Amino acid sequence: SFFVVDAQNVTVTCEKGLYPPDSKTKVGTYIINLDLPPEQRWAQLAKDKATEIKALIDSFKEFILDWGPATKAIIEFLDSKGGDLDATLPYPFAGEIKGLADNTGINLGEMLLYNLFYEFFTV
Amino acid sequence: CTSIVAEDPSGALYHARNLDFGLFIGWDVKNNTWAVTERLRPLIVNLDWQSGGRTVFKSVNFAGYTGILTAVKPKLFTMSMDERFNIDGGFVGIIKWLLGDHKQKWMGFLTRDVMENATSYSQARTMLANTVMLSPAYFILGGNQSGEGTVITRSREAAVDIWKMSNASRWYILETNYDHWEAPLFLDDRRAPAHKCMDAMGQKNTGFAGIFNVLSSQPVLNKLTTYTALMKVSTGELETYIRTCKDPCSPW
After folding, report:
1. With a CB-CB cutoff of 8 Å, which residues 46-85 of chain A face chain B?
2. Where are the alpha helices (DSSP H) in B24-183?
3. What is the pLDDT of residues A23-52, one digit of tens each?
4. Angle between helices A43-65 and A93-104 in degrees, nearest 10
5. In angstroms, rounded to a whole number, what is the distance separating the alpha carbons of residues B105 and B109?
6. In chain A, what residues touch B35 (CB-CB under 8 Å)?
7. Distance of alpha carbon B240 from alpha carbon B45, whole angstroms
8. How far is Cα B84 from Cα B78, in angstroms, rounded to an integer?
């Protein structure tokens, strides 16, 4: 495919015949049981994906620390006060994030930061 | 991101999206990839949120993220969220929240509340439009009745604009990461190519296959794309595919 885009004229190659894609790219499903206490809902998923979550958070922190002192201060604050801040979240999020931290072995402040990632990137 | 709500000739509504994330976060010059995007892909899961043994809604999540970015509530509505960049963005909201102002809702918490608790398309739209949030966003909402598709452009405080499919003069409504009434950044125009491919596909070919092809056309598909999700509200179907864009490919 190639494309040329400008304000007046758009040329795009529209793909055809790509569905269904390779079944290896199809995403599997986990059940989240809303009848369980929040701390237990994500237990299996958290255990299965702990390594990948940790790798993402490490990468995320590495790059946003480069943005300057403001982001560094926010991350340090979240890291050190994670538990206190988590307790202020509404039901069921405080319990779910704590359960995720407990089941992955990731610091609660870092798990809180992960759940704030969208807000970080809207500037 | 690119989100599309489209209606087939029988009135059935489809909602699909590409989730693009990780711009300017670590370009790997050796592999031509974005670092965070690469680390997000192994975390993609479909979730079936159940109560009493029954599905309440289904979503596509990054494992460990408790909010909702893409979801279907069977027979009622579908929702996706596209990032809205703004100077008065989430940073201001985060600092206010850290300083104790907890009246604002985290974006992911709001969408989760909507998926769990809203019982109609109109109720979902009201919640997404009127709740004070930590950050701006675009919410793309599809219903289960003909013509039910809306793009809600949000500031942190309220809806800046509510754009309905019926006002878009098309059988579909489409949003990327720019206010629909303004031209996108010329370096990042996924909107015009997506429109071109939707129009080329035509309403009669609307369905998972046709929309997947549109979302596979560059630059709608690009190096930041982590997944493509396809939803049909009437049946509650949700299919998600992990995406990679092989070179030559647009970096965003």
Report:
1. 46, 48-49, 52-53, 55-56, 59-60, 62-64, 70, 74, 77, 85
2. 35-40, 90-98, 107-117, 121-130
3. 999 999 999 999 999 999 999 999 999 999
4. 90
5. 7
6. 59, 63
7. 8
8. 19
Q: Which two tokens stand for residue B94?
A: 């985060």
How many angstroms separate the CA atoms of B13 and A32, rounded?
A: 26
State the pairing for strand pair A29-33/B44-51: parallel
Q: What is residue A55's predicted lDDT score, i.e. its pLDDT?
A: 96
Q: Which of residues 15-34 of A touch B (CB under 8 A)?
A: 15-21, 25-34
DSSP codes of every residue in A58-81: HHHHHHHHTT-HHHHHHHHHHHHH
Nearest Cβ partner of B45 from A30, A77, A100? A30
Beta bridge partners of B107: none
Distance separating alpha carbons of residues B66 and A38, to the nearest angstrom: 11
**CA closest to A29 among chain B residues:** B46
Q: Tell me the pLDDT tens digit for each residue of B133-187.
A: 999 999 999 999 999 999 999 999 999 999 999 888 789 999 999 999 999 998 8
Using an 8 Å CB-CB cutoff, list chain A residues near B178: none
> pLDDT 10s per residue in chain B (252 long)?
999 999 999 999 999 999 999 877 778 888 889 999 999 999 999 999 999 999 999 999 999 999 999 999 999 999 999 999 887 777 788 888 888 888 899 999 999 999 999 999 999 999 999 999 999 999 999 999 999 999 999 999 999 999 999 888 789 999 999 999 999 998 899 999 999 999 999 999 999 999 999 999 999 999 999 999 999 999 999 999 999 999 999 999
For this structure, is B197 an active site residue? no
> Going by C-beta distance under 8 Å and a sequence separation of 6 or more, which residues neighbour residue A86?
A94, A97, A98, A108, A112
